[in-house]
Amino acid sequence: MGLSVSPRYDSLLAKVITHISGSSFAAAVRKARTALSEFSIEGVATNLALLQELLSDNKVQSGIVRTSFVDEKLPGLAAAALSHPHAHRVAAVELYPGEEALRAQLAGTVVDIAPEGTELGADGQLVVLEAMKMQHVLAAPDALRTVRNLVSPGQVVATGDPLLVFLRTSVIGGESSTATIDLDRPRADLDEVRQRHRLTLDEGREAAVAKRHKQDRRTARENIADLVDPGSFVEYGALAIAAQRSRRPRRT
To answer: Do 192 and 133 contact (CB within 8 A), yes or no?
Structure first.
């Protein structure tokens, strides 16, 4: 009782697999929805209500949906799921006039949080959450000033938990900063990713390439370039590194 599932682990509780003797997909969907309604899980939030709403959709029952269906319907499905008797309710936060609460969009561990009184522009980093060994940045929706921090680094939070309270500073000036965002402005995080990818290319490893050529040898990328058509080579996991941090710096 009272145990919270750590976001460091897969929170899967059960799988529901339904089977019918006929060929009606709609009947299989209805059977799955009935099975979900028979679940009784207490003490921890689940997505049962969301799944039931999803299986109640006529398009899902017909089997004619696109891969973007869930993304397009998720806001409505989530709102409908909240009306279920056992739907998870988010914690209330006492707010003063003008204040808003930033809530966790997923369960995770707080890695970093902006100090109280910090002023940020739109898209500024407010909170960093870690879940399943991946970090997620919660950005400022507008120019704002943090007022009160409700969590601290190392704390585990659930989806919907309040993280901090902020006040939009753009409201004071009478104009939202989101209206003046330059969509062509390079993002710092994307620039960092591009720079890391550049370091994996021959042009980003001049010393290593020169050493290779001095030995009358070619680089792996030069060999690949002779084997495939220009522009046809697709590389996955270029930023993966070998487990050799104890023997050499990460940059090498």
So the answer is: no
